Amino acid sequence: MSTHQPPMPQAPQAAPDWQAAPGGPYPGYTSPIPVVRTNLRHAITSEWTKIRSVRSTMWTLGVFVLLVVGIGLLAAAVVSGSSSEDLGGQNALSLGFFGLLLGCICIITLGVLTTASEYGTGMIRTTMVACPSRVRVLAAKSIVFFAVAFVITLATSSFVAMTQVSMLGHSARTPTGGEWLKATVGVSLYIALLGLLSLLVGSVIRHSAGAITIMIGAVLAPLVIALFMFSSQLEKVRTALFEYSIPNQMSIFYSNSLGDGGPSGWDPLWIVLGVTAVAFAGACALLEKRDV
Amino acid sequence: MIELEGLTKRYGDKTAVDDLTFTVRPGIVTGFLGPNGAGKSTTMRMILGLDHPTAGQVRIDGKRYQQLKDPLTYIGALLDAKAMHGGRSAFNHLLCLAQSNGIPRRRVGEVLDTVGLSAVARKKAKGFSLGMGQRLGIAGALLGDPRILMFDEPVNGLDPEGIHWIRTLMKSLAAQGRTVFVSSHLMSEMALTAEHLVVIGQGRLLADTSMADFIRANSRSYVRVRSPQRERLLDVLHGAGITVVETGTGALEVEGGKAEPIGELAAQNGVVLHELSIQQASLEEAFMQLTAESVEYHAHSDSPPVPQEWGAGWDKGA
User: What's the domain count of chain A?
Assistant: First the structure.
């Protein structure tokens, strides 16, 4: 059966059974396991297993829910317990801001850990060996993380918003449908995208502590620096820093802003979407170029 | 089959892998030998598509690694025992690998059984000993039942039982017709497992030969003779036409010869012998001779330290 076999100068003359096996010009063992042409779906399933099977995911998301719900209910309780004065024409939804501002640090941390922790542990080599398409790995991580972050933030912020509105129903203005949408879906999309940006920064920096520091700095530094810009020559810079700082952008989802100009309405979402898209392209380019 | 063609990797001025060309064939265990820092791991990372070669290429069964759609069913690799997230259980670690390659879930249980980790499948990997981590890494390599297996220093840190287990495993995998490529810096270890040998030093190919040929060419035997009447013995041996090598320690060495004629000659001439013994140069010595010029980190080396990538040292403190 091996008489018409093409000559294999390098193959040793042994084990004729594997020479007859399929495998083209490359003889050897043939596995009974069916061969599958993998695609993005396989990578997403794999990343979902990864994200749900480490305790840090549960911890960061648990702390996130505690912060958002705890601070949100506390703020509502303080406001409703104080005088009978109303919220100055505001609706009760805006009280959800404080919890989310703190909570977004958890989402940033989880985003960074999704990519950077693989570099810390060496898991990234195993991951990239299993899936040689590096962009597919990053895309799968992004999709899984974004879905998890959005669903958790939406559920938590919606719960807090409903509770606050019902607690302050007598003193605050009833929110409109548009305000509801921005204070739940809008701000959740914004925070999930902020987390996705952190994931991409984690992929570029490849170090958890470094990437988390950069992201928290990006959230807080512009606002803090602007606070201390007393000279009038810097007035324009100061205003821009206030208006485009991430806390202010989040506040815009509740129709509050530190300035009159700057972003308004759904603008913050488009800003973070653009920045994240640029970061994704940059992270992909670096991933392809660098050694793992 | 793994085919390397002019594979080269440079980091700045430093050449880690220098124009490597060789083929790793199926059906046998191929040993990949070299001193520490010779470029073995870098070569293996380039085979797996982790590092980009500066020049040259690698083919896995005729394909580039990036072209493999389900790489784990082609090639399974153990790079280092701790290339995994410590917080994940052994089962989940293997499950996420299986899912990324569309490998059936039942394989996870099967390979855990093969490596003997079924009892700790739900335990976190960070609680594993080095040997258990090594076994989990091997389970990951076997997951896709691949035609090619690659192990980087698999016996490092293993107890004798574990070393024996890995040797047997590698031989049985090769006997099934798979390609088995295993790196080591221990010649003695390779002599027991590998049928073919690829030796590198400072990134350059030093030998690509069958183990039998290597042993034949390098296992030198000689007779060592010591005598208080050294000059007299030399005269006698020279007179009989026997070539003698004088060593610094005062002993004489006779290449390849047998002990009996030397003893008889000494007795006939009344020379007192203090030692007459047959010596076998070990393969370890042969390997050290082969790589002597290319060992990068001599104990007395005063070469400057290799600059680290920015941030590379952070992990150690964390």
Answer: 1
